[in-house]
């Protein structure tokens, strides 16, 4: 921590955390600042929104959420550092799309989403109040991923919406203020300063490197590892490139209401987290595409929000970790789920370690070509639904939520599974490099993922080998 003089104002700056360094490393490799834009929309079917009051609530949210006032700048040595601006008084515009076709309005907001937020000491987010056709009104928000992740974004939306309802409706409780981002930041930096917890986590991950080298499994019937082996003349190569042409888009599949309920019911009855079921479905699909390969790795996004301070302090807390499982074909679906759940629990206990550092340690240990890895895709499961924003006393309203592509991706496929705001069903969001991955490949991945999951939950005593053969 050190003071920095910025245009005559002295500010207290702090180093980046490990989670922020993941994003900084990625955007540095990409060279496209818009890569770190997260752009979302949240709209309520309520024609009589008081936008002056809504604007007041947004300003109050800026005041309460320190990470929404976060700035990033380079110090005298050229290293990125962060500081919190004392206030936020930028204009919050109202854009009226009510006379537009709704799809055109969303296309325009998608265009906004591809305009970078630069790390030059300026604001790291943009909020616009929106009128949509059909009586829907709400907010468009673009944030820089080094300042907020999806959990933090939902918390901010929740605070603003609940505060608005508290001001405008009777018998509504005021929302609770979030926790301090700065307090959590100091804990994160103390962990990284040679703490005993850091040493325990480092020991856990270095022990993983004593295992035999993992192997890349493909996300479609096209096996890119076999192609790369032929190109490099190395039949023993086990790692593969995870990115290609970085121009990207998002394809969304909505799982129907009934199978969504079956998935939730299975999770409750067997006390297996949804994330574990999704991971088993993915690794079974990748195994199928790799000819029945038993050793499969998936990159797992870990939110690291186990404490009250972590869960309510905003910021970005995502670490990306490989979840590797070797599952024999005679293992039942239920036993395979328990294997994955145990692996996830162990990973979560040591998820604070620096993922970028471990990536370098893995590459050095196995001697893999630069830019290659063993995971063909990343999975994020967002357990909070937009419907949960309403709280218990807020009037019943219909919602729409949107995730707008920033147009750039640094992985062939990134899968985010979220709950729909209307019925709590599942939406599968596939962000994909559109010139490197075909829509046919995306469709096949979603098709076989669903087949693997629902064959398993309908008969959890069926073996993985039997499911693979049936698929």
Can you walk me through this structure?
The structure is a single chain. This protein has 471 residues and is of the alpha+beta class. The chain has 2 domains: 2-185, Chloramphenicol acetyltransferase-like domain (Chloramphenicol Acetyltransferase), CATH 3.30.559.10; 212-470, Chloramphenicol Acetyltransferase (2-Layer Sandwich). The protein is 39% helix and 22% strand. It is built from 14 helices and 17 strands. It has helices at 18-30, 51-64, 102-113, 150-168, 181-192, 196-208, 224-232, 257-270, 274-289, 308-312, 333-349, 355-366, 439-458, 464-470; strands at residues 2-6, 9-15, 37-45, 70-74, 80-84, 94-96, 125-131, 136-144, 240-241, 248-254, 295-302, 319-326, 372-373, 377-382, 399-404, 413-419, 426-433. It has a 6-stranded mixed beta sheet with strand order 10-17-16-14-11-12. A 5-stranded mixed beta sheet has the order 6-7-8-3-15, with helices on both faces. Strands 1-2-5-4 form a 4-stranded antiparallel beta sheet, with no helix packed on it. Strand 4 and strand 5 (80-84) form a beta hairpin. The longest helix is centred in the C-terminal third of the chain and has 20 residues, at 439-458. It starts with a strand and ends with a helix.
């Amino acid at each position: 921590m050190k003071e920095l003089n910025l245009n005559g104002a002295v500010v207290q700056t702090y180093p980046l955390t490990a989670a922020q360094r993941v994003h900084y490393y990625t955007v540095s490799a990409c060279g496209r600042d818009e890569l770190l834009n997260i752009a979302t929309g949240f709209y309520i079917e309520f024609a009589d929104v008081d936008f002056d009051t809504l604007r007041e609530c947004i300003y109050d949210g800026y005041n309460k959420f320190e990470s929404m006032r976060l700035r990033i700048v380079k110090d005298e040595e050229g290293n990125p550092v962060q500081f919190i601006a004392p206030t936020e008084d930028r204009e919050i515009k109202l854009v009226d799309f009510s006379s537009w076709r709704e799809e055109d309005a969303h296309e325009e907001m998608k265009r906004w989403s591809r305009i970078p937020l630069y790390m030059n000491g300026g604001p790291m987010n943009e909020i616009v109040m929106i009128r949509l056709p059909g009586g829907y009104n709400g907010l468009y928000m673009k944030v820089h991923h080094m300042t907020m992740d999806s959990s933090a974004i939902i918390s901010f939306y929740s605070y603003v919406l609940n505060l608005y309802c508290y001001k405008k409706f009777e018998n509504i409780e005021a929302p609770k203020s979030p926790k301090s981002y700065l307090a959590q930041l100091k804990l994160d930096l103390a962990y990284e300063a040679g703490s005993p917890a850091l040493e325990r986590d480092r020991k856990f991950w270095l022990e993983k490197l004593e295992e035999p080298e993992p192997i890349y499994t493909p996300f479609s019937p096209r096996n890119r590892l076999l192609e790369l082996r032929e190109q490099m003349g190395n039949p023993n190569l086990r790692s593969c490139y995870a990115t290609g042409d970085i121009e990207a888009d998002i394809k969304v599949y909505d799982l129907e209401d009934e199978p969504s309920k079956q998935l939730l019911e299975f999770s409750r009855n067997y006390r297996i987290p949804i994330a574990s079921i999704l991971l088993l479905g993915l690794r079974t699909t990748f195994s199928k595409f790799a000819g029945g390969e038993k050793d499969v790795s998936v990159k797992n996004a870990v939110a690291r929000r186990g404490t009250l301070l972590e869960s309510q302090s905003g910021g970005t807390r995502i670490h990306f970790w490989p979840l590797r499982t070797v599952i024999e074909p005679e293992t039942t679906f239920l036993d395979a789920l328990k294997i994955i759940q145990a692996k996830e629990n162990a990973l979560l206990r040591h998820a604070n370690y620096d993922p970028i550092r471990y990536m370098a340690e893995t590459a050095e240990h196995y001697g893999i070509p630069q830019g290659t890895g063993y995971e063909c895709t990343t999975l994020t499961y967002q357990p909070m639904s937009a419907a949960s924003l309403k709280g218990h006393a807020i009037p019943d309203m219909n919602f729409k939520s949107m995730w707008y592509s920033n147009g750039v991706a640094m992985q062939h496929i990134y899968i985010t599974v979220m709950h729909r705001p209307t019925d709590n069903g599942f939406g599968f969001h596939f962000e994909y490099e559109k010139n490197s991955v075909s829509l046919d490949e995306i469709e096949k991945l979603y098709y076989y993922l669903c087949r693997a999951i629902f064959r398993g939950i309908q008969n959890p005593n069926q073996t993985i080998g039997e499911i693979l053969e049936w698929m």
